[in-house]
Design a protein that fits this description.
Length: 222
């Protein structure tokens, strides 16, 4: 069984999905610790209520990023995790920090990377009028929201969508996708091969996604 450390900054719904899937035996993992850089993060209460150890490493109480990260590393390493999951962790991490955990640091991001790295992904996707949006789970490398992609989930953008409705639909996919990616990691089925991730035992044909899905309407002559 693998040990996990989960880093959060707020609501913690992705963290909660991982805690629940570990409890249900859907992933072969024990959550060693949940760490938040924000003392007020709602996810801390959810973790504590589930009996998971929590820690706060408040970035505002350190003189610089180096000090903050040293304290974060101490909290992580104290739990001796096999895998560290950034589940809505909203701090940029230094190349040295990322290098320390190469190959065992996963992030979930609310866009189909490499589109829309950074913040406000749903607003930017709507402003661009994209028809397909989604989320990505990837191994973390030194560049922000970069790194070998483990899994992506897509949703169709509806004409009536606003930022809130689109975010809610993507979030539901995030929860499933993150659990799936962590399950694969915990089963030792992921190998990083350059920029790509190979999934051992994955035999299904790669699928094609289309949105809107009404092909008849799409292909009708003008
Ligand atoms: C999620 O949508 C996650 O993808 C995003 O923050 C949200 C956290 O929600 N992460 C990022 O934007 C990281 N760049 P949660 O706290 O309910 O899991």
């Amino acid at each position: 069984m693998k040990r996990l450390a989960i880093l959060i900054s707020g609501r913690g719904s992705n963290m909660a999905a991982l805690i629940e899937s570990a409890r249900a035996g859907e992933i072969d993992a024990a959550i060693g610790i949940v760490i938040s850089n924000r003392p007020e993060a709602a996810g801390l209460k959810i973790a504590a209520a589930a009996g998971v150890a929590t820690a706060i490493v408040d970035h505002r109480s350190f003189a610089d990023r180096g000090e903050f990260e040293r304290s974060l590393i101490a909290a992580i390493d104290g739990a001796a995790p096999d895998l560290i999951v950034l589940a809505g962790f909203m701090r940029i991490l230094s190349p040295a920090f990322v290098a320390r955990y190469t190959g065992r640091l996963l992030n979930i991001h609310p866009s189909l990377l490499p589109a829309y790295p950074g913040v406000d992904t749903h607003r930017r996707a709507l402003a661009d009028g994209v028809r397909i949006h989604g989320c990505t789970v990837h191994f973390v490398t030194a560049d922000v929201d970069c790194g070998p992609i483990v899994a992506q989930g897509a949703v169709a953008v509806a004409d009536g969508d606003d930022e809130a409705t689109l975010a809610a639909r993507v979030l539901a996919v995030e929860h499933r996708l993150l659990v799936r990616a962590v399950r694969l990691f915990c089963a030792d089925r992921l190998t990083i091969a350059g920029a790509r991730v190979r999934i051992r035992g994955e035999t299904a044909e790669p699928g094609v996604l289309e949105a809107p899905s009404d092909k008849a309407t799409n292909s009708a002559p003008p």
